[in-house]
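Pipeline run #58 for the internal structure catalog. This entry was flagged by the ingest filter as a single-chain record with no existing model, so it goes straight to prediction. Upstream metadata was stripped on purpose; only the residue string is passed forward. Reviewer on rotation: M.T. Logging verbosity set to normal.
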Amino acid sequence: MKPRRLAAPLFFAIAVSLAQSAIPSDGETEAYRTFTNAQGRTIEARVLQLSGDTVSIAMRDGREFSIPVSGLSAEDRNYLASWKPRESVPSSGADPTALNGLIGHELFAGPTLWSSEPASVAERLSWPRESETPFTESFRFYPPEDYRFLGARPHSAALYGSEDGISRISIVFANKGDSFGAAGSGEDHFIEGKKVPGGLEGLEILMEHDAKMIRGKLSSELGEPSRQKFGDGESRVDVERWDWNGHSFLLSNVEGEYVSLAIETPAFADDRGRSSRVPDAVIRERARGFVERRENGDVVISNIPMVDQGPKGYCVPATAERCMRFLGIPADMYLLAMAGQTQAGGGTSVEVLLSHIGRDIKRKGRSFEIESGELELRDIKRSIDDGIPIMWAMQSTPEFNDVANDRTESRQEEDWSAYKERVAAEAESTPIAPRPGYNHVVIIMGYNEETEEIAFSDSWGPRYKERWITVAEAQKISSDRYYIIDL
């Protein structure tokens, strides 16, 4: 893949903050220099290739860009006029072929993951797309039992991307959610969970096995790991770290929770996973810009990232992750489940989860509101019109899902006038009622004033991205609790 081409001013605006936090790799200092653009902004990088008026450069975190030579200072242009490629650039790690062999998959094919397109890496790994918005994308794979990564069995493998390319890779192995999860996904996740031999003690044995296997394979090729803290607030954990060719491998083994392997940029790992805050004005404008108004009167928030919770009761952390990422707050459902003291197989206390992550939300300049009471269309309208999704606690019974699925399908196929008449006649009489064991959290992300319907989204994958039900029917199974991350 060719490096992305950016205009010099835009490149420096994006990259200067990354360069300031980067730490040199051993043996590479002489290959880097400080470049200056016409506006006087600087960045530290090394030259990869020079072709006409285009120079390809690499930052210390492994990201590669192409910029016009004419946009650089006179000193830089003089330097490039006499620049010649080295016969060889020292390698900073193991052979990709050997590392791919240890992993068991062709993860690495180019200089770095960060210079690759997310979709191309996901295709190479056969990880299906989970979500795509103008600013983010993700791919998530729930592998079969015989799938192995570094010799251990992963339960979830996710690749996250942004406007700049791949952001990170997160692979979760033995954990209290998936290991005890239900036998099915989507609406089937309410059935009884799986049994792990030995219960939680058996889970600890599985976790220790996975951590030992991963640690051994990485150490055999990359040497012994260093140790550090990673993450913020309640989600901060101890990790073992290996660095290789502009990548940091971070292994977590959180007692009673999960074993995971994250692949990050060294700069992000050096900063302990602390991300910069996106300005409120940017997020507010983006959120309002995603409010879609349709000809039939539907008003919906588009581009809310999908997170598929898989065969486990992680509706609360998965839904929270979706809303947080939509509003510019990095999040991971497994870390949120840990903070929320989620039970084996799922089942999270909304109050505990959100009280624990509240400090992190405030640190990012966001507020968190908890509201009680009946569903009111005027309140939903106010939030949706501002581009703010609502987390809604309810009971996702089979009867409710049957009605919601039928309505959603009918909206696409039935004559609109006939549909409105049928919905109005059925709204009050639909036989829906709460039932024990079906507690659930979804996102209210739209409404239609004329039909008095709301649109909601489950964290069950693309098929459940948008479903519709009337307010009257929704109230029958509502838990009368709503959670809103606001700006």
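catalog note: The chain has three domains: 4-81, 96-270, 280-486.
catalog note: The first strand starts at residue 4 and ends at 5.
status: ready for reviewer M.T.
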